[in-house]
Amino acid sequence: MINLGIKAALNPIAFQGGPFTIHWYGVIIATGVVLALLLAVREGKRQGIPEDDFYDYLLWALPVAIICARIYYVVFQWGYYSQHPSEIVAIWDGGIAIYGAILGGFGVLLAFCYYRHLSCWLMMDIIAPPLIMAQGIGRWGNFMNQEAFGAVTTYAHLVSQHLPNWIINQMYIGGHYRMPTFLYESLWDLTGFVLLMLFRHRKHLFRRGEVFLAYVMWYAFGRFIIEGMRTDSLMLGNIRISQLLSVVFFISAVVILIIRRRQQNIPWYDSGISKD
């Protein structure tokens, strides 16, 4: 199949008026966060956790997660940012790393649950499905910024994947068509979200903390494979940082799952007990 013409890339700016510029990247990320919050609040009520706890957590976690995501990205792109220090804060142009955000948000969650006397495992269980949904949505911000792409490919190959033209056109980057690895990860994340939502309330399936551990294993496994397809990975020497972390997180989750399964006093996820 022959491409009859390449259309211009989609405008990454959603709105611009005077000194204000709103990027689609931010709009998409914000949409994912709002939807995740609503789902977490709904499940929290079911588990006996007041909705204010989720709002308060987000007020602390969101800025910390964004800062950590940016720091993570800048650190592993320091060769560039050391020469362009004024761009370090230009987060609106993209350049955040989801693993940095997850680590930052996780750190805040540990402190938040400690001070609120909440079960950290239960909170993680509640947040895990909305989080992976938000990650799947957020990948479309990369799509608008033409980031998180894979190797050079052909128009015909993209058509053979039954992709619509508006995706194919956006994958024309730097004079070449690229594999839409952002899409693969988005679909992987959203599939994980559906599975967790379908099975987390199954009787005697998940113990406390295992919904979160299932999320970690699912995401880490998919991210490891998809990261290997990307050509814009953050690197530490010859190692893709995200692949290294994926291996660490996956193995850690499996080990923790095995250890916790040997403990007989851990309640089932749906027990409704919100405090340790």
Quick structural summary:
By secondary structure, the chain is mainly alpha-helical.
What does this molecule look like?
With 276 residues, this protein is mainly alpha-helical. The chain contains 10 helices and 7 strands. It has helices spanning 24-46, 51-75, 78-81, 98-116, 120-145, 155-160, 165-170, 181-199, 210-227, 241-261, and strands at residues 13-17, 20-23, 152-153, 172-173, 176-178, 235-236, 239-240. It has a 3-stranded antiparallel sheet. The N and C termini lie far apart (61 Å). The mean pLDDT is 92.
Strand count, sense and barrel status of the largest sheet are: 3 strands, antiparallel
Mean pLDDT: 92
Helix and strand succession? EEHHHHHEHHEEHHEEH
Structural class: mainly alpha
What is the number of E strands? 7
Backbone CA Rg: 20 Å
Percentage of residues in helical conformation: 55-70%
Report strand order across the widest sheet.
3-5-4
Low-confidence stretches: none
Strand content: 5-15%
- Helix count, DSSP H or I runs of 4 or more residues: 10
